[in-house]
Design a protein that fits this description.
By secondary structure, the chain is α/β, with parallel strands linked by helices. It is built from 20 helices and 34 strands. About 25% of the residues lie in helices and about 25% in strands.
């Protein structure tokens, strides 16, 4: 959906109103005129179809007084957005003859309508789904006589098109004598192309209840239906389905902004037959204006289930990759035919934000920055009501958090049903900022699903919130439901050493846990509980753990930090390992937040360095403060190793009284050397026989040693 269609008052099947540039009265009932129409939208369908399907649509105010317009020729100057229509005006009745003499050069009298066969509504279900529905302001999408529609609206499929037959009320309209004084005012209003002339004309109507609806020579017959609301389609009178001898004026198109005013129809001709209804056919709006619900777009939903269709869609975005690019898709055929010109692109511009110390300047620059984002035209068009169909936002880069106010707007939330992006950041590639993650949380809480079209894994990943946690991961679609319900294990350990000595035991531990699951009925472990395992996503212990988890069909996850280009620091670049299925990424300046967002149900430690020390301390703090429950933490390795790592610190804190009342935290940590020892701890915990938590013992080492026979000491 390109930017050039997102303008107010633009519809691609109609032009703006045109005005007379030549006008000559031939006789009291006939005049010839040439109409000039300017500022035609470049995408006007009439440019691309045969002119025999393009019609001059007379202003309904003129038709109700008794004028008819017969179009003789249409000429385009497409490069200038101009069209010329040669029309013959015919007057029916004395009021029309009077108005004919008042028209002059400069009077706006009508527009062009392109009756594109491809846009004709063929299936009645297309209209029936709109009956009883309303827009955001409570206005009916399609109704005859009220929000719930009417039994007077009869839909039939005739000659491959849907036709609605609108029953006529008993009687007809005529005019009060006051109309004569109004005509000169109307003529002046037509020079200014003023709106609401039809409403003023209604003041001069009078309803003749029960009057016969039959034609009179040289007079216009005004008939009335129940009020018609049309917001989703164009309606057009089907003249060929009128009774023989009846003709409708060329003011025969109901526009999609008709609200309870489409109830008067102008007929002329010669017949003694009474007319009972008005036949209307319908033409669809541009897809983004159709008020179509996302759930009704079967073809689009099917496309979104195929990952390749999304990768193909993003492949159409303009190059180079550094360009910011977005588009909004509302239907499957649009998705499948995307081209480079359908994307809104912006050159990345660096802004120097002055900061909160200068609030006025900050607000101004932020507003300019927002308007330069490729998502802005679509979000603005939604706020303005120019996009009314629900759809998906595709964005090369994850939207800037500065768009949060627009993205979480009520109107946007009703229309944008999903957000897909290809890269988290233009400047930082695959790594999210803290503000990005906050926006992800907000989008999830506001019910706007967000998806990462991840080229590195060739998967579509959905951002899923952890249960009762303010954090989440991007998860492959096939694993989403399992991840939502999963108990989460995690492995901490060094990225520097080979970990073959632990791989066999970790594999046996996880295999044993999967078997144990079938015996348990604990909140964290039962036959219906999926299991996920989280690491830091790097090499060493992390890679080994992710590999084992994936081998065992356990959801393999990672919280990955950007350690790239840390020159001069003793930090080994942690290249993301290839065994990760679900992930969240962090920039280095948010390392602490990343550690806090592991939220592990069952942590496992392997030997490690400074990072492992920090992670160990964090698990202690979380249990002490209650932010994590007193679940067991397994320490793989020798008792001597963990004594040197933990004991002196624990005993110093205890002896100096700095952990008074929290010594019990030591009973949450269990030193093991084998999988069987770990499974013994898990079995006792899940059966409620493990002495753990505030009421449990304190261990002098700062952790509990599990003996080969299962004894705790």
């Amino acid at each position: 959906m390109s930017e050039n269609i997102l303008y107010p008052h633009h519809y691609d099947l109609v032009t703006p109103d045109g005005f007379l540039i030549e006008y000559q009265i031939q006789e009291p009932t006939k005049a010839l005129g040439r109409v000039r129409i300017e500022n035609i939208f470049p995408g006007f369908i009439g440019y691309r179809i045969d002119t025999s399907s393009v019609f001059f649509n007379l202003k309904s105010t003129l038709a109700q007084i008794g004028l008819e317009a017969i179009c003789r020729d249409i000429v385009y100057q497409q490069e200038k957005g101009i069209a010329y229509a040669d029309v013959e005006l015919v007057a029916y009745g004395e009021w029309a003859r009077a108005l004919l003499s008042l028209l002059e050069v400069g009077s706006y009298i009508g527009k062009l309508f392109a009756a594109d066969e491809r846009r004709r509504v063929r299936d009645p279900d297309y209209l029936l789904r709109m009956l009883g529905r309303s827009d955001a302001k409570g206005r009916p999408l399609l109704a005859l006589g009220g929000l719930e529609g009417s039994r007077d609206l009869v839909l039939e499929k005739i000659e491959g098109r849907t036709v609605a037959f609108l029953s006529l009320r008993e009687g007809k309209l005529s005019y009060r004598p006051t109309l004569g004084g109004f005509l000169s005012t109307l003529a002046l209003a037509l020079r200014k192309n003023m709106s609401h002339t039809r409403q003023l004309l209604h003041l001069h109507h009078q309803w003749e209840e029960g009057a016969p609806r039959v034609l009179t020579d040289s007079e216009i017959l005004l008939v009335r239906t129940a009020p018609l609301h049309v917001r989703t389609v164009y309606g057009r009178v089907v003249s060929s389905l009128l009774p023989p001898g009846y003709f409708h004026t060329s003011a025969n198109v109901l526009q999609p902004d008709t609200t309870a005013s489409g109830d008067i129809y102008e007929l002329y001709g010669k017949s003694q037959q009474i007319i009972d209804d008005i036949p209307l056919e319908f033409y669809t709006l541009e897809p983004q204006r159709e008020y179509v619900f996302f759930s009704d777009r079967d073809q689009l939903l099917t496309s979104l289930e195929r990952p390749q269709s999304l990768f193909d869609a993003f492949a159409t975005a303009p190059t180079p990759r550094s360009l910011l690019a977005s588009t909004f898709v509302v239907k499957g055929s649009q998705m499948e035919s995307l081209q480079a010109q359908d994307w809104v692109i912006r050159e990345p511009i660096k802004h120097d934000f002055p900061g909160l110390a200068h609030p006025s300047r900050q607000a101004l620059i932020v507003e300019k920055y927002i308007e330069q984002q490729p998502q802005y035209p679509f979000l603005k068009a939604i706020e303005q009501g120019l996009i009314t169909s629900q759809g998906i936002l595709l964005s090369r880069y994850f939207p800037t958090p500065l768009l949060k106010r627009m993205l979480l707007n009520d109107s946007v939330g009703r229309i944008v049903k999903r957000i897909y992006f290809e890269y988290p950041s233009r400047a930082h590639d695959n790594f999210f900022s803290h503000e990005d993650r906050t926006l992800l949380l907000d989008l999830a809480k506001f019910g706007i699903p967000t998806y990462w079209v991840d080229s590195s894994s060739q998967e579509i990943l959905q951002f899923i919130l952890r249960t009762e946690k303010d954090s989440g991961l991007f998860v492959p679609l096939s694993l989403v439901e399992a991840f939502r319900k999963a108990t989460v294990l995690g492995v901490y350990g060094t990225n520097l050493h080979e970990t073959g000595i632990f791989e066999e035991e970790l594999r046996a531990l996880l295999q044993g846990l999967l078997v144990l699951r079938d015996e348990m009925s604990h909140l964290l472990l039962s036959p219906s509980t999926p299991i996920a395992l989280v690491t830091g996503g790097g090499p060493g212990a992390m890679e080994m753990s992710n590999r084992v988890a994936k081998d065992l069909k356990i959801i393999s996850c990672a919280n990955v930090v950007d350690f790239r280009a840390q020159e001069g620091l003793a930090v080994r670049e942690q290249k993301t390992n290839p065994y990760i299925q679900a992930k969240m990424t962090y920039r280095l300046n948010r390392l602490v937040e990343r550690q806090a967002e592991f939220y592990l149900d069952l942590p496992i430690f392997l030997p490690g360095g400074i990072g492992t020390d920090f992670e160990y301390a964090l698990e202690e703090v979380q249990r002490k403060t209650g932010s994590s429950p007193a679940n067991p933490v397994l320490l793989f390795g020798t008792e001597e190793y963990w004594k040197r790592k933990v004991t002196s610190r624990f005993q110093l804190n205890r002896d100096t009284g700095t952990i008074a009342g929290s010594e019990w935290v030591s009973n949450c940590f269990y030193c093991i050397q084998t999988a069987l020892q770990g499974l013994n701890v898990y079995r006792r915990f899940f059966t409620g026989t493990l002495p753990i938590g505030r009421e449990g013992p304190t261990y002098d080492r700062g952790f509990c040693c599990v003996r080969p026979d299962g004894a705790l000491e």
